[in-house]
Write the structure tokens for this entry.
Amino acid sequence: MQRIIIVDDHPLFRDALKKTLELTLAEPELLTFGNMEELTTHLTNDNEADLVLLDLMIPGVQGFSGLLQLREQHPALPVAIISATDTPETIRRCYEHGALAFIPKTLPIEDVKSAINTILDGETWMPEGYDPNNVEVGENAETIARLGTLTPQQKRVLKMLSEGMLNKQIAYELNVSEATIKAHVSAILKKLAVSSRTQAAITVSKVNNAF
């Protein structure tokens, strides 16, 4: 029996995807959640699953933060993104952040079935026509490249930093020491080639959905 977790805040889409999986797989165990908090609570007690199907735009996440959180806290969990935001840049960054697949919500049902079977077979799946070697990232290419060198924890720190949080507040939220946060901030500034927290925040603001 295969256990698949569906995370999407739209009940109609969630139910439709669940029915698709029921028709595609032999007696699957399907779990559904409507936000990141519900998923996090569940995984704290039971983090076993063959696949997590995660929508990028759900309550409790911003940009790619949900994917980053899953990859950091549960690196063994296979994650596929299923989203209506399917620009080449978004797709590229999902793969860079560790997703096994990006499944557009506009994809025909038969293609969704094919994609999920491919992922469950242990392979990476990409949308038809998407070429990871030929994606234009625009004028923010250098900034995006620098952000891509940050570790998942550094990205979380940068996100909180860009929201105006102090080191002490970030340390409390991440349950680490303030000295650890100071070390992360120093590493972030170096990787982004900036000299202050303010400049780091400005750098992030130039890139839509940096996280």
Observations:
- The longest helix spans residues 178-192.
- The mean pLDDT is 87.
- Residues 138-205 form a domain with the Arc Repressor Mutant, subunit A fold (CATH 1.10.10.10).
- The beta strands are 3-7, 29-33, 51-54, 79-83, 101-104.
